[in-house]
Backbone:
DNA sequence: CGCACTCTTGAGGGAGCTCAACATTTGTGG
DNA sequence: CCACAAATGTTGAGCTCCCTCAAGAGTGCG
C-alpha cells in the first residue's frame, strides 16, 4: 500500500533479488517458464490452479520462511500475494551438485500436495476446516493464536467448500467453544484437544511431532507450504 | 495363481531384478525406505495412503510401462498389486549425473498428485467418474475399450466417493448411452464427446493433446500414473 | 456519506452417504 | 463336480450435509 510493486529493492548477491508485491498481485502465472524460485521474507502467498470451468483450486499457502515455485518446470500453478509480501528470488538450480537440494524441495512440494489430497478426500466440512486451522497453527508455530490473512474465499477454494460453509463451520466452532475470533482474520484456539478430535487423530499427531519432523526431514525453517 | 510370489525371476543386469506379485500383495508399505523404484512390466498397481481414521486414499494407478516408487524418500504411500503383476526393480539414483532423471520423475509424480487434486476438488460424482474413465482411457491408449482391473472400492477411494455412488454413476452412464459394460471390469466408450462434456473441457483437451504431451514432456512410454 | 468488498446467517433443495437387500462372481472344501 | 461361503457389484429408500439463493451486517476507501 506504499507504492512498491514488484520493484527490485536491492541485490543481496549478484543473482538473488528482493521483490515486493502488493496484496492480490500475481507473482507468476500458469505457463510461465519456471526459471527461478522464491522464499517468503514477509507476508503470505497462495498457489492456484485455474480450471477451464472457472473453478479455482488453491494448492498451498506459504508463510515467512517457506519456499515456493521450485516444483514447477513450466509453471503449472499461479502464485499470488495474499497480503503485501516481500520475497527473495533466486535462479533455478537446474544442474550442478545442488540439484539434490532441488530434489528435496520437490519432495516437500509432493508432501504438500499429498496433504492437500488428504484434506480433499472424503472428509466433511468440520474435519476439513479443523484440519486447516491446525495445519495453519503448525505452519506458523502459533498454537494459541492463528492469523488467517487469506479470505474465506481462499480457504473455501483450498478445502473444496463454499465460503458459506467455511463461514458457518467456523461460527459453529466458536459457538461450540473450540475457538474464538478477534475479527475474521485472527483465530484463537480455546480447545485444542477438541479441534484435534474433529480433525482426526492424524493431524493431532502431526502437530505433536512438529519438532521431530523438522529435524528428521531437514525442515529447519523451510517449509513446503500448506 | 501359479505359486509365484515376489520371487526373483532373473537378473537382467547386476542391479535390475524382475519381481512378480499376486493380486492384492503389498509391494512396499508406508514408512519403508525408498531405496528402489519400479517399472510395471505387466499388470496394474495402486498407491495408497492409509489414514488413522480408517479412510484410504488411492493416489494413483500404474499400468504397463509406468514407473512408480520414485517420488518417495521414505515411502509415504504404500504400493499394492491390483492384479497379478510383473515389475522391474531398479536401485534408486540418489546421486550422480542421473539425479536429473529422478528430478523429472518427481515432477511427473507431482503432476499426478495435481491431477488427483483436480479430481477431488469441488466436482460432483458424474464429473469425477467421467474424468476417471477418460484418464484411464488416455493412460491405456485405449479410447474404445477400457479395462478396469481395479475394484469399485478402489475407484471410490481414488475419487473420494462411496462404491455405491461409483456403481450408480457408472450404471447411469450406461443407461444414458455414454458407455457399455462387458462385465464390471471392461468398459466400452460409446459416446466419447458426451463423456468429455460431462468431465469438463479440460479433460477432453488433455486427451486430444495426448500425443503432443508425450513428446513435449518427454513421456515416451513412461507415465506418472493416474 | 455512499460504494464496494468481505463476512455472516437463514431457508430450501438436491447430491451423495448410510442402511439394507439382493445378484453375481470367485474361491474352497467335500 | 457340486455345495457352500466369501467377496464384489448393483439397486432402492431415507436422511444428512452442503450447495444455492437470498438478505443483511461490518469494514475500508474515495
Residues:
Amino acid at each position: 500500500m506504499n507504492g512498491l510493486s514488484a520493484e527490485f529493492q536491492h541485490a543481496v548477491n549478484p543473482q538473488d533479488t528482493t521483490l515486493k508485491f502488493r496484496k492480490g498481485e500475481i507473482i507468476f502465472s500458469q505457463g510461465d517458464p519456471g526459471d527461478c524460485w522464491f522464499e517468503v521474507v514477509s507476508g503470505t502467498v497462495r498457489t492456484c490452479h485455474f480450471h477451464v470451468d472457472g473453478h479455482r483450486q488453491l494448492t498451498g499457502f506459504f508463510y515467512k520462511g517457506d519456499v515456493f515455485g521450485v516444483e514447477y518446470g513450466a509453471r503449472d500453478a499461479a502464485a499470488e500475494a495474499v497480503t503485501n509480501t516481500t520475497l527473495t528470488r533466486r535462479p533455478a538450480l537446474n544442474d550442478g551438485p545442488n540439484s539434490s537440494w532441488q530434489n528435496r524441495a520437490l519432495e516437500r512440494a509432493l508432501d504438500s500436495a499429498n496433504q492437500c489430497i488428504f484434506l480433499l478426500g472424503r472428509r466433511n466440512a468440520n474435519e476439513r476446516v479443523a484440519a486447516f486451522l491446525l495445519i495453519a497453527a503448525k505452519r506458523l508455530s502459533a498454537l494459541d493464536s492463528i492469523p488467517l490473512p487469506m479470505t474465506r474465499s481462499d480457504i473455501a477454494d483450498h478445502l473444496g467448500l463454499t465460503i458459506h460453509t467455511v463461514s458457518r463451520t467456523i461460527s459453529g466452532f466458536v459457538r461450540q467453544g473450540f475457538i474464538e475470533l478477534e475479527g475474521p482474520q485472527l483465530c484463537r484456539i480455546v480447545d485444542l484437544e477438541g479441534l484435534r478430535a474433529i480433525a482426526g487423530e492424524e493431524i493431532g499427531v502431526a502437530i505433536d511431532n512438529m519438532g521431530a519432523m523438522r529435524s528428521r526431514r531437514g525442515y529447519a525453517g523451510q517449509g513446503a507450504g500448506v
